[in-house]
Design goal:
By secondary structure, this protein is α/β, with parallel strands linked by helices. The chain has one domain: P-loop containing nucleotide triphosphate hydrolases (Rossmann fold, 3-Layer(aba) Sandwich). The strands form three sheets. A six-stranded mixed beta sheet has the order 6-7-8-3-9-10, sandwiched between helices. It has a four-stranded antiparallel beta sheet with strand order 2-1-4-5, with helices on one face. It has a two-stranded antiparallel ribbon with strand order 11-12. It is 33% helix and 27% strand.
């Protein structure tokens, strides 16, 4: 379990996020929702140990502060919203995800190569493995970075807007992939602006507003938090009437 208690963090002396207690269980997809500036990215950066914080964060009962950077990377894999495009081939980038797992020789072994191939196949990039990253589309590059994080094989995956550059078919494929990752026992935490996709993908949702927790619960529970959704997202969700709808809930009109 990835947990936080009495967490507080910010920038330039100003508090950006203040949360009393939250838990992110293994084997589940937790969606983090909120408008720009609500604290979604700050929360993921803090859980990854990148953003300084006050309070307590534990990984399966172990304080995050007690872990070295390499130990953290073995437990928690983090993908930010945007990364620079290095002059690397796709497969080489994905191999970087294995760095924290390498022994003293820093040489890829059979297990490492198998994880790299699995990640490339899961993200449908195996045929593009020899391509330079700079020759890929934005969506393909995003999937390459996702493959790198999958190859890292952390117990918890923190993904900040991973579907932002993807078309609808690849967003749906991403959702199915993350469901499989969670079913394997890993904890998956995904921030997003996409309400229908988040409600379809997540086992549990966290709704942030101005750096505070506005509401949390299952999609079925949170869809009934109409005022909380209005305040935090400026939108409502309603059950899809068409059984062939891509998502179980769709954005509805204001009453």
């Amino acid at each position: 379990m990835l947990e936080l208690r009495e967490l507080r963090t910010g920038y330039g002396g100003k508090t950006a996020l203040e949360l009393e207690r939250l838990a992110f269980p293994p084997g589940m997809v937790t969606g983090v929702l909120g408008r720009n500036g609500s604290g979604k990215s700050t929360l993921l950066r803090t859980l990854a140990g990148i953003q300084p914080w006050e309070g307590e964060i534990t990984v399966d009962g172990i304080s995050l502060r007690a872990l070295s950077r390499r130990q953290r990377a073995r437990r928690i894999a983090y993908l930010p919203q945007a990364l620079p495009t290095p002059e690397l081939r796709v497969e080489t980038l994905v191999a970087h995800g294995r760095y924290a797992r390498l022994g003293l020789s820093k040489t890829l072994g059979e297990t490492d190569r198998a994880r790299i191939r699995d990640a490339l196949e899961l993200t449908e990039l195996w045929p593009l493995r020899e391509r330079p990253l700079r020759t890929l589309s934005g969506g393909e590059r995003q999937r390459a970075f996702l493959a790198m994080v999958l190859a890292q094989d952390g117990d918890y995956l923190l993904l900040d807007e991973p579907g932002a550059a993807l078309d609808i078919s690849h967003r749906e494929a991403l959702g199915a992939l993350l469901r499989r990752v969670a079913a394997s026992g890993k904890g998956v935490v995904v921030s997003s602006h996409d309400l229908p996709l988040s409600f379809a993908l997540s086992d549990r949702l966290i709704l942030l507003r101005q750096g505070r927790l506005e509401a949390e619960g299952s999609p079925r529970e949170l869809v009934r938090e109409r005022e909380a959704l209005r305040r935090s997202m400026g939108a409502l969700l309603v059950p899809a009437e068409n059984p062939r709808s891509r998502y179980p809930y769709i954005i509805g009109a204001e009453e």
